[in-house]
Amino acid sequence: MRLSREPHIQPVAIEALRPTQITVGMREVKAKQRNWRKRKEEKKADFLGTHLIPVIWGPKAEYYVIDHHHLCRALLEEGEENIATTVVADLRKLEQDAFWIFLDNRGWMHPFDAKGRRRAYDDLPKSIADMEDDPFRSLAGELRLMGGYAKDTTPFSEFLWADFLRRRIKRKDVQKDFNAALEAALALAKGEDSNFLPGWCGPVERP
Fold first, then answer.
1. CATH of region 8-133, choose from 3.90.1530.10, 3.90.79.10, 2.170.190.11, 3.40.50.2000
2. 0.85 exceeded by pTM
3. What is the dihedral of CA 197, 199, 203, 205, to 10 degrees?
4. Intra-chain end-to-end CA distance of the chain, in Å
5. pLDDT-derived band of residue 110, with 50, 70 and 90 as boundaries?
6. Any idea what the Cα angle at residue 112 is, between residues 109 and 116, rounded to 5°?
7. What is the domain class of 135-193 according to CATH?
8. What CA–CA distance (Å, rounded) separates 134 from 117?
9. Can you point out the beta strands (E) in the chain?
10. CA geometry: angle at 22 spanning 101 and 153, to 5°?
């Protein structure tokens, strides 16, 4: 079935959306929640009308989110029930195992847990509410916002940074003093050891 690229304007229940990643950075989710509360009611409607969630139409006609997981989780935590989506691909005819393999090879999923370990497809959470917190994903998100690296089109680039930081900063240090961990992350981001990562913008030596 060939799809037009028109938005799927029928609202979808956020609780019914299926994630394609195991973790989120809950610090980033909470920041989105705070921003949401600051919006006036009429502005909230405008926001929801212009921020469509990209999804894959999968087996059993379920919708699988492939971006904006943090926004979906924040809206769910704030009591919002529905959101508009845009269907990127219709894969309803695939069996579940073939569906996961297709998503994996297209870079449309990230089956890694909060310790950076790759997990089986069956370990992906069944709902947005079930995604677990990865403090290093929060650290990577804040690092980008403060200019540690640039926004990049590489799929799951923040998770690549999160895994880099996970191997160099202790989890307990991130949880104990996030700001200190962020300073350490910034120093790492500007070093040559991280120059292979997407969006790297460390110092460049001039001839």
1. 3.90.1530.10
2. yes
3. 80
4. 55
5. very high
6. 145
7. mainly alpha
8. 12
9. 8-13, 23-24, 53-57, 63-65, 82-90, 132-133
10. 70
